[in-house]
Amino acid sequence: MIEDLFKETWRELEQAPSTPDHPFSLCCLATNDLNGGIKQRLVNFRKLTSQQNLLFYTDSRSAKIDQLQKNDGASVLFYNPVLQLQIFIRGRIVIHNQGKLWDDHRVKIEGRSLQDYNTQYAPGKHIKNPLDVKRTQDLNFALLELKPEVVEYLKLRIEPNRLRALFTKKEGEWEKTFLIP
Predict the structure, then answer these.
(1) What is the CATH architecture of 2-178?
(2) pLDDT value at position 138?
(3) CA 152, CA 171: separation in Å to the nearest integer?
(4) What positions does the domain Pyridoxamine 5'-phosphate oxidase N-terminal occupy (predicted)?
């Protein structure tokens, strides 16, 4: 049974980026801020790699880049209300600003999406008029690759019991165990 939960976790994550309106296509990414607190934000989940790493896009000048350069630990939280399924993943993030993986995703940014990465100033800078955002030809794009170390599966169903499992990656292998919900 635990193997079924493990497979369901990765199946949902694999389908999410390419399935329109899939609840897992949007998740909450948490990082450690520079003042010792936690910073959470919603992000688009872009892809699950064949190595079971999760990919996200960001502006290379965003605060999360500074946070991740100081502490690469991060977590994401997914929720599917139809399945009543919550997936929590904790791991380490690698920032890509060049290379093949970065290039493969950089070419996918087009149209309206370019505006997410070509502002004159970094995200979070104070401005007087939100309609007066200056754009440049520069593309400030970074690819974030989350390498999972811990995955928690929680099925919030009522009957007969909620299901909770913990998957921990040790020496390249996943250890699997049930938890009290």
Answers:
(1) Roll (2.30)
(2) 86
(3) 18
(4) 25-154
